Amino acid sequence: MAAAGGANLIPLVAAIIGIGVVSQVLSDRFQVPSVVFLIASGILLGPEVLGVISPDSFGNALQAIVGLSVAIIVFEGAFHLRIDKLREAPAATFRLVTVGAIISFIATGVVVHYALGAPWPVSFLVGALLVATGPTVIAPILEVVPVRDRVGAALDTEGIVNDVTAAIVAVVIFEAILEGVSSPDALVTLFAERLGVGVIVGAVVAGTLYYVLRYVDLSPGNAPQNARLLALAGALVSYAAADYVATEAGIAAVATAGILLGNADVPYEEEISAFKGDITLLVLSFVFIALAALLDFQNLLNLGVGGLAVVAAVALVIRPLLVFVSARGDRFTREEKLFMSFVGPRGIIPASVASLFAIALQEEATRLAAEGMAQQAAALNQSASILVGTVFLVILTTVVFEAGLARRIAEYLDVIPMRVLIIGGGKVGRALAERLADRGENVVLIEQDQEVVQAARNMGFTVHHGDGADTSVLRSAGAANAKFVVAATGDDDVNLLVAQLANSKFDPESVLARANNPDNVEAFEELGVRTISSTIATAQALDNYIERPSMSNWMGEIGRSGDVQEVEVTAERLVGRTIREIGPELPDGCLVTLVSRNGDTTVPNAEYTLQEGDRITIIGEREAVRSAEELVNPE
Question: What is the pTM of this model?
Fold first, then answer.
């Protein structure tokens, strides 16, 4: 069953398509990257287990199939790389895809060289490939772990950008290996040639597609479908044309075409974005099955302790180092940096490009062996084994452990915050966002004014530019997952509309609205909107300073040295006990001041007995209040 001739090719292709579909279903069901199921299926069907698929199963077409698959994957990733989003990204995210990528590339190459004894070019080829994380493995994690938006945006951007850049750098190093180039001048020349050819061909293809999509009648009834087919054709043509002009320039070409087309104002953009659907699923199946077919368990065993050392260094040393260096001085907490450090699985690009390179190396080794150059052929075969084995080992280990344990890691580090959506990024909205963010909550602002958007982003907040009274804008900002929605603009009509939309469309736990005109408070509340009047709140604050100056001064410190928190009683050890009995267990510097039960709020005396589900208000020093929260509600 090792080889599949023409008669067996059809059932083989059908089996691979079926595996891809089942893997995607399982991925959606268990919220685990589909790469896990694809690799497991590939190993099962490969020569090491059932022997249904082997490197000879596709005859001489395997390299072409994998090459075109890589073209589609890279084009899809590049198409979703938005330049304006990169400009708006926090400094830490920019450093993550520049400084962090360089650290990963160099450090991984050094570790592979010394741990596995690989030649420097092969070591840095592995280093270049393992820079890429990729949205296809990050997205399922972020669906399961609703981390703060700035964390998710950093991981997403890193995956998209590094997918493309890692592929291009790897191509240059691979070509240098094949041509025996080692001098810096020759490497620079090789890089310029491959990148130059790729950029020119990609730009020509992108320009042609742009013209056709914008100015040519694509048959109105089938225009969306035709747009997708044109995008697919563009990816394949750019790859093939560039590769024909200069070997291995195809990846740079499809990356260029994808970036240019994705950032142009083209019609049918949503339809082209759907390019990731069925076709991508199919090519991913081919890529991972091909990778598994190239695997030789003996080669994995030959990596031995050195292979495990590479995995440990990549996941536990290099990744944390680059994250902490990149995120220094930003708004990321220590726990968020640790989460980003331990959730960086590798996936599609390393696997697909490694497969393509390994096939090419083995074919070159076969040619050299036929010409009597056995020593050089053996060296290339060894390089192919190290390349595939190391990349596979890192992918499998990081995906299984980091993706599989991501939720547990997030819960242990306590990086899943309450989500608060604030419409209005003015002074009130930003002040509220700052107080909530200081307490560790996940705050997202929505604002229309571009200057205000930029000011809020400069403060480190996640801001969506758009009209908060638009349902689609609310949805894209995450209203469906928000616990609180706050309408804090300076326009009462907008605030009322936002509050009604949030209640009717998204059903958050609570919706709050700012009333700029105190005469509107009653009208708001009659419509079921909890309302805060700016005028009344200011008057109350001034009155507090006059009548209760000590309390007002202390309240001004909330979020810095002092804090007030309301928390639900869930700890079994506290249920059925009085305030007097739990007092000695509370941290010094805090008190229980209020208890809410069944809608009634009481100032408890020492003999008040707590019940499960009571909501108690704790007041005191900030750290003491935080510790008391964990005691009362340890979940």
Answer: 0.67
